[in-house]
Design a protein that fits this description.
single chain; mainly alpha; rod-shaped
């Protein structure tokens, strides 16, 4: 009986590790996809920041 409990506990621990890895991967994918800026927006942002910098000097 004790051997069976140890196997069940080990299997549960492996499942928890896999679930945690999937959760971390999902969070990383969400963060990376939300931080992507389309090229046109990046160009406009760059020009806006450059113009503000140019006028502050």
């Amino acid at each position: 009986m004790i051997l069976m409990d140890n196997k069940a506990q080990a299997a549960l621990e492996y499942l928890l590790i896999i679930a945690a890895a999937i959760l971390v991967a999902a969070i990383a994918i969400i963060v990376m996809t939300s931080s992507i800026v389309p090229p046109t927006d990046a160009k406009n942002t760059y020009h806006t920041k450059y113009n503000k910098l140019e006028h502050s000097i």
